[in-house]
Amino acid sequence: MDTSKAEMIQDTLNERENTHGSYVQVANLTRSLMANMEYSKNWGELYPFQQEALHMIAVKIARALEGDADEQDHWHDMAGYATLVENCLKQVRP
């Protein structure tokens, strides 16, 4: 990879750390949230799309808690994943 591409990638990573928080801290918090969700009584009964939406929402929660909680994209994305599940449920359980 040439230097300019590597610099561009690093610049992006630096920007994301400001809004999303430390990658390691977000990953640790996300895995902690997921472990608790996966331990719950109904986890195995969920559709895969529900499980994945909850995973992505956990990532967004971790980013809000470890990064910039006022970043509107975190909240917009959480609402988006919840809406995707709602739409999928309408198809599988009309």
Question: Which features does this protein show?
Answer:
4 helices, 94 residues, single chain
- Rounded to the nearest angstrom, the radius of gyration is 16 Å
Could you give a short account of the major beta sheet?
Answer: none
- Broad structural category: mainly alpha
Overall shape: it is elongated
| Sequence of secondary-structure elements | HHHH
How many H/I helical runs? 4
Helix content: over 70%
Question: Which whole number gives the mean pLDDT?
Answer: 95
How is the quaternary structure best described?
single chain
Number of strands: 0
Strand residue content: under 5%
Low-confidence stretches: none
Give the termini distance in whole angstroms.
Answer: 50 Å
Question: What's the quick description here?
Answer:
This protein has 94 residues and is mostly helical.
Structural summary, described in words:
- The mean pLDDT is 95.
- The protein has four helices and no strands.
- It starts with a helix and ends with a helix.
- By secondary structure, the chain is mostly helical.
- The protein is elongated and about 50 Å long.
Write the layout of secondary structure elements.
Blueprint: H1 3-20, H2 23-39, H3 48-66, H4 72-92
Helix pairs in contact: 2-3, 3-4
